[in-house]
Amino acid sequence: MLLVDDHPVFLRGLRAVLEEERWVASILEADTAADAVRIAREHPVTVVAMDVALPDADGIEATRRILEIRPTVNVLMLTMLDDDEIVFRALHAGAHGYARKDIQPDKLVQALSTVADGGVVLGPSIGAGVLAGVRRTTAVLPPPFDRLNDRDRLLLYRMALGDNNAQIAHRLGLAEKTIRNQISELFDKLGARDRVRAVLLVHDSGVLPYLTPDTAR
């Protein structure tokens, strides 16, 4: 786990909370984008908590550079503001989502755990913003979403809300392996190589309100 933030009090507090988590093997720290990139190059980092605002560079750009070095790293952006533009820029850079720095520590740890498992984390304000003022209809979905059946739409809807495979499996009463296989087939239908790209496609296309079959409620 790599924590990237230039506020020592926040960094110290987050580290203290994460040190109590069994799934966190080790913790590295950086207070600049340059240090974060260097550490990612020198150490087998798998998860990064990345502040958006760093003293020497944009945390989103640092994320992009880290993913060029280690494409399988899962990054959670940390921000003090709910800003759709920042969130979508971060996702396009390859981040798995974002969390506000002022949320409860247990919520932040949960967000990091979700990202570590390959899930996508989007704050509630982003979901509300996408849905606000949009009336759910039976309109025909544009390609490639028109290729999806009800189960595909449900899986994609839950992924867009940030559920990981285990959470979806529990919700639907299916084995996690079954969900994993179904999501793999869903990626093929969408032409998306991974979860982040599939979620980006949903939000960029504005189809989230139309994905929800009755079973997703």
Summarize the structure.
By secondary structure, the chain is an alpha/beta fold. The chain is 49% helix and 9% strand. It contains ten helices and five strands, in the order βαβαβαβαβαααααα.
List the helices and strands and how they pair.
Elements: E1 2-4, H1 8-18, E2 28-30, H2 33-42, E3 47-51, H3 59-69, E4 74-79, H4 84-93, E5 98-100, H5 105-116, H6 124-131, H7 150-160, H8 165-172, H9 176-190, H10 195-205
Low-pLDDT segments: 127-139
Work out the radius of gyration: 17 Å
- The proportion of strand residues reads 5-15%
State the share of residues found in helices, binned by percent.
Answer: 40-55%
Strand order of the largest sheet: 2-1-3-4-5
The ordered string of helix (H) and strand (E) elements is EHEHEHEHEHHHHHH
Mean pLDDT: 84
Query: Can you count the helices?
Result: 10
Oligomer category: single chain
Give me the secondary-structure category: alpha/beta
What is the 3D shape?
globular
What does the largest sheet look like? 5 strands, parallel
